[in-house]
Amino acid sequence: DVQMVDEVQVEYFDSNTQRIITKQDWADQLCNDKPRELESETERKKGQQQVFKGNIGTLKKRFNQTGGAHIVQRMYGCEWDDEDGTTEGYEQYGYDGEDFISLDLKTLTWVAPVHQAFPSKLRLDHDTAQNQYKKNYFNKECVDWLKVYLVYGKSTLQRTERPRVSLLRRSPSSPVVCHATGFYPDRVVVFWRRDGQELHEQVDPGEVLPNHDGTFQVSVDRCLTAVPQEDWGRRYECVVQLKGIEDISTPLDPAHIRTNGGETITSLLSSSLVLLVVAAVAVVVGVFLYRKKNDSEKRHKPVDSDTSSENTEGQKLAPEYQPLSTGQS
Predict the structure, then answer these.
(1) pTM over 0.85
(2) Domain 164-279 annotated CATH 3.30.460.10
């Protein structure tokens, strides 16, 4: 059982020691301030282990499996937009790496993408009281806890770290990549611009990835063929937008593009000119520029993942984990 807020791990449950292990100093303080919640949450997680074991047995029968290693996973959480106050919640189950069943909070019904999940859907849909409770939990209690986390972890979760931006290229014939790294939070927008206008054609959005130090990185590229090099720095630029800081604009200057060998494009072109004079070889280089735009979410979000192998007094940190069958099939 692992709990995260805005991609930052807060705690996990160690099934061997039967204890909740915190991963942040501010989470230690939260546990010290709310010992009753810590105790009740620990007992809840202990009980979930047995339910998980039962669910694995149920699903092995549903999928006609007799042995081997199998995994049941549950992921749930809520999202809160601190600008407009909107919230969202979700709960979903997976089995052996594939979607098994998920809750639709709008209709308060369960969605079964595989026929082996239909018996679970019928049972869970019938429990209208539990589904109504989940709706209240994801829209209210979960969000209240999220706000508590943001207060305790303000120095970590609400910090802003400015990205470092580089222009990279593997070889003279490969795309020019705008690489932003070291930023926090992960809700960043990176795009290429020409003559002040954002480019959309031939876009392949880059994925925001975590760094080992808790910050994030993203690479963005876009293809522009037959663009004269004299137009690069004059017309094209990479723009990085992160809430809390001014836009970072990096002109597409050949002198600032780094290659795998550590040289800049300018030095590579100079070497090519020498080669041209000595060997009288003409080289035509196609110029490519690629872009990916990251559509990261603006919302704060805690995520809790269970895997087998403001005033929050009295509130639950998580909704109850349910058996996926009645014990019959």
Answers:
(1) no
(2) no
